[in-house]
Write a structure and sequence with these properties.
The chain is an alpha/beta fold. The protein folds into two domains: about 210 residues, P-loop containing nucleotide triphosphate hydrolases (Rossmann fold, 3-Layer(aba) Sandwich), CATH 3.40.50; about 60 residues, 2-Layer Sandwich (Alpha-Beta Plaits). It is about 30% helix and about 25% strand. Strands 5-6-7-3-8-9 form a six-stranded mixed β-sheet. A four-stranded antiparallel β-sheet has the order 11-12-10-13. A hairpin with a 2-residue loop joins strand 1 and strand 2. Helix 3 packs across helix 4. The longest helix is centred in the middle third of the chain and has 16 residues.
Length: about 325
């Protein structure tokens, strides 16, 4: 856990004040690699924003700049109207990283109590453990906690200073389905009280279900920024699902309107540019049954907008 706060403020930033995070024309280069290439991004207080992208897209570099861990080569960065390090020194920012930062021989409560002692002001350790859903394991040693429990502990530690901005890197790694659902319920409750949350995740369904906005990065550029529905709308076409025993991908590639075909046992999935033509053919020319037509999901949009064959001149489309 990387804890970037040094003092608690005990209050959230007002919605009428400056943006929680503002990046304007931000660039960061590592030699000939443009890790961050002209990023413009604004986060309002109380928003939950997911930042997604394939490996090397610039997610970590962008987050490092927001956290003041790295300085941009060009562009403007403000966190609550201040330089990132100034916001951090005032206790406005906390970060929960994927691994590290825990003393394995301490109990869960001892870890929270010790971390709280590092701040000028902090929330009650038992309260943050309750918020994180791990109050019942307060006496358990950290080295006896599961990966999901340790990640919840990192979340609890980040809440101790009552930060206005919470940055999460793969926050639910190691959690089971129930644990992930409980974690995001706690995050949503915090955001309703005004806390801004920025998280990076490889669980695309989490971004779809819990983020107010999704920001997609590719090669250091923002290629899409909008709600989950707006992002998914950028992936043209629909998916036709049907039951068709004995089908093969090769045989179905000639189906009208088909762009790609997947066969999973007796189920066929046809990604179609013309779903009506595809459905009509399957129902009249084959033995297909139980046919369904659905809009493409977040995974389809992610691949379409960030894959190697995505257009180099991609624009943000649904921007804010």
């Amino acid at each position: 856990m990387t804890q970037t706060t040094t003092a608690g403020t005990g209050s959230f930033a007002e919605g009428t004040g400056p943006l929680a995070v503002e990046l304007a024309g931000v660039h960061k280069n590592f030699g000939h690699v443009h890790a961050v290439d002209g990023v413009d991004l604004g986060l309002s207080s109380g928003e939950i924003v997911a930042i997604l992208g394939p490996n090397g897209a610039g997610k970590t570099s962008t987050i490092d700049i927001i956290l003041g861990l790295s300085r941009p080569d060009a562009g403007r960065v403000r966190v609550f109207g201040m330089e990132p390090r100034q916001a951090i020194s005032r206790g406005l920012v906390s970060a929960v990283m994927q691994t590290g930062g825990l003393l394995r021989d301490l109990t869960v409560y001892e870890t929270a109590e010790y971390t709280a002692s590092l701040f000028v002001r902090s929330q009650n350790p038992r309260e943050v453990l309750r918020t994180a859903g791990i109050a019942d394991i307060a006496d358990r040693r950290v080295n006896k906690c599961s990966g999901g429990e340790q990640q919840r502990l990192r979340f609890a530690l980040a809440l101790l200073s009552n930060p206005d901005l919470l940055v999460l890197d793969e926050p639910t790694t190691g959690m089971d389905v129930e644990g992930r659902r409980g974690f995001w319920a706690a995050i949503r409750k915090d955001a309703e009280n005004g806390r801004t949350v920025l998280f990076a995740t490889h669980y695309l369904e989490e971004a779809d279900a819990y983020a107010d906005r999704i920001v997609l990065l590719r090669h250091g550029k923002v290629v899409a920024d909008g709600t989950a529905s707006q992002i998914k709308a950028r992936a043209a076409g629909r998916t036709v699902r049907a039951t068709l025993p004995g089908a093969s991908e090769a045989a179905l590639m000639g189906v009208p309107g088909a762009e790609s075909v997947e066969v999973r046992g007796d189920t066929v999935l046809v990604h179609a540019s013309d779903s009506d033509a595809t459905a009509r053919y399957l129902l009249t020319q084959t033995a297909a049954k139980d046919l369904e037509i659905a809009a493409r999901g977040i995974e389809d949009a992610f691949i379409a907008l960030t894959g190697d064959d995505a257009g180099s001149d991609a624009t943000t489309g649904a921007t804010r």
